[in-house]
Amino acid sequence: MPTFTAPDGTRLAYRTHGDGEPVVCLPGGPADSRYLGDLGGLSAHHRLIVPDLRGTGRSGIPDDTSSYRCDRLVDDVEALREHLGLPRTDLLGHSAGANLAVQYAVRYPMRVDRLALITPSTRAVGIPITGEARRDLAGRRSDEPWFPAAFAALEALTRGADADWEAVTPFFYGRWDAGAREHHTTARPTNAQAVALFGADGAFDPEATRAALAGCEVPVLLLAGELDLNSPPPAMAEFATLFRDAALVQQPGAGHYPWVDDADRFAATVAGFLGR
């Protein structure tokens, strides 16, 4: 894997897939970026540049662990852009990585051509997602064989009780089949400290971020999964209203990883937006 050096000297790695116009793709988690793969074949349309965030995958562990904070990671994205020699770039963020993508676009609006937010977390903009909203959406899958155990775990987690996170995993996929199970093995974060400190105090300033986004002229795609408990469609619709030029697309039958649930539909939607 190619590498570059962050401003604090941490050595960071990134993957590339495909050819064409570049898209910097920021993973969620923070987790090893390999779970993104080639985003359902999006690499047939664009060159995907996929960094491992510090402390994940093949990137180095920083001396200063406070640099795991989301707002601090913006400096790493800018260092990657400079390393690649890109005057501007399209930027894609998945899940928690969307928080980073949004904060980068706020700090460096002149460096971003288009912004694609895929089943994004809403922490950077302060949109709450209630346990009731998650339970209501989960109830649509009551005919699935795994539902009773998964729903019981979801209710326990919603109450703040101890529960098995693995039990709720099927809710994050449109189909809990062999392909989803295999993908899940790549999507689990392994650096608990990086996950815990990503949203540490000071990482987010929702009021300031929302105000900045109101003046953002970058075209935005906000892609929601119809069945996604992590980023439910109503919250995604509210997220889209924060931008001047946002296209909200809901992928039918999709969960939190829409390129796993329907690769062709996902790739066509994102490529269509990036190529417009």
Task: Outline the structure in words.
- The protein is of the alpha/beta class and 276 residues long.
- It has a single domain (3-126, 192-274), classed as Rossmann fold.
- The protein is 35% helix and 16% strand.
- It has helices spanning 70-84, 96-107, 131-138, 147-158, 178-187, 192-198, 206-214, 233-240, 258-261, 263-274, and strands at 3-5, 11-17, 22-26, 47-51, 89-94, 112-118, 220-225, 246-251.
- The chain has an eight-stranded mixed beta sheet, with helices on both faces.
- Helix 1 packs across helix 2 (96-107).
- The radius of gyration is 18 Å and the shape is globular.
- The mean pLDDT is 95.
Sum this structure up briefly:
The chain is α/β, with parallel strands linked by helices and 276 residues long. It is built from 10 helices and 8 strands. It has one domain: 3-Layer(aba) Sandwich (Rossmann fold).
Which properties best describe this structure?
276 residues, alpha/beta, Rossmann fold, eight-stranded mixed beta sheet, 16% strand, globular
Low-confidence stretches: none
* Topology-level CATH name: Rossmann fold
CATH homology superfamily = Alpha/Beta hydrolase fold, catalytic domain
Helix content estimate:
25-40%
Order of helices and strands: EEEEHEHEHHHHHEHEHH
CATH architectural type: 3-Layer(aba) Sandwich
Radius of gyration: 18 Å
Largest sheet: 8 strands, mixed
The CA-CA distance between the termini, in Å, is 31 Å
Query: Could you say how many structural domains there are in total?
Result: 1
Compute the number of strand runs. Answer: 8
Going by helix content, strand content and strand pairing, the class is: alpha/beta
Oligomerization category of the chains in this entry: single chain
User: What's the average pLDDT?
Assistant: 95
CATH class: Alpha Beta
